[in-house]
Amino acid sequence: MNRTTIASTLLAATAVSTLGAAFGTATPAFADKDRDNGHAAVYNLHGDAVDASNPAGSKFEGIGADEKRGRFYVSEVTGGEIHRGRAGVSWTQEWLAGNGTDGRYTARGVTVDDKGRVYIAGGPNGINDAGANGIGNPGTDNPTRPDLWVYSKKGDLLAALQIPGKPVFLNDVAIGPDGAAYFTNSKAAEVYKVDKGRNGWRVRLFADASATIATQAGFNLGGIVVTEDQKALVVAQGNTGALWRFSLGTGKVSAVRTGGADLTDADGLVLQGNRLTVVRNFKKQIATLRLSADGRKAKLVRQAASSPDRVLTTAKEFRGEVLYVDSKFDEPVASGPYEVIADPTR
């Protein structure tokens, strides 16, 4: 069975039961809540027990924000569970199960569109020898697993899609002004586009920038945002620290002029007006730049150390503050507390 057939088969599973709050424990009463603005300094995530099937504990990476409904979603690398939180409530719930649910064994970037639909990047989920829980060494194409998923706001599976013919590591995702979702590939200089056509959900190659961006060892394209003028994407290349501009109109790619700013280990990006925040995971730094409206140039404003005890991966603006995911990537066997934090120095 080829990848396209598998994708169609999985898509037919739209009738899968609504997952929602059927998984995880109930959210407790409002705690650590600032009742004036609905913020919490720390949001707690549920972790899994360490055992033979889960030897690394729980590790996390992506976060997506639904401003309209006051919800946010966090992806678990170890198992692929998706956790959901609410504004001002310090505890989150497991919203979608992992460990093979809808073919998902790991998950990375998450975003939410205006309709509340949740888009999830699978990282190495579709790579054959990704290892236990999908966090091992990338290998060959596995035609039995999806590379990305789309869910309704209620948790119904809308699409489970694969990139045909090649192994990919879909890292992060952003919603464009056209309503489509754009996914970065950390194995190559590629961005993929996902939307719903006349015949259902589809994934297509939006831009192949291999003639401009040299693929190097480690993680290539990762964090992604839409420029202030809504005409381009700005994408981080983690292994080199370069920022790249992808024109939404033509797909043309050019380097963002950063004046030589050190952005190596760039992971998640957050754009608020003209302020671009770059989360530099293992460097344990948060870089702030002033990005031009068209995304062609950026000026470094400051570099600030994040907590030395955390490896922050990505972040999203949510109800007027920025939430950062503590990945636990620095712990061979992760242990709690598992947290999303509003203060990266905490």
Automatic annotation (TrEMBL):
Signal peptide: 1-31
Record has Signal as a keyword: yes
Residues in SMP-30/Gluconolactonase/LRE-like region domain copies: 61-270
One Pfam family hit: SGL
Cross-referenced Gene3D superfamilies: TolB, C-terminal domain
Alphabetical UniProt keywords: Signal
Domain of life per record: Bacteria
PANTHER family linked: MESOCENTIN (PTHR31460:SF3), PTHR31460
Name of the protein: Sugar lactone lactonase YvrE
Provenance organism: Nocardioides kongjuensis
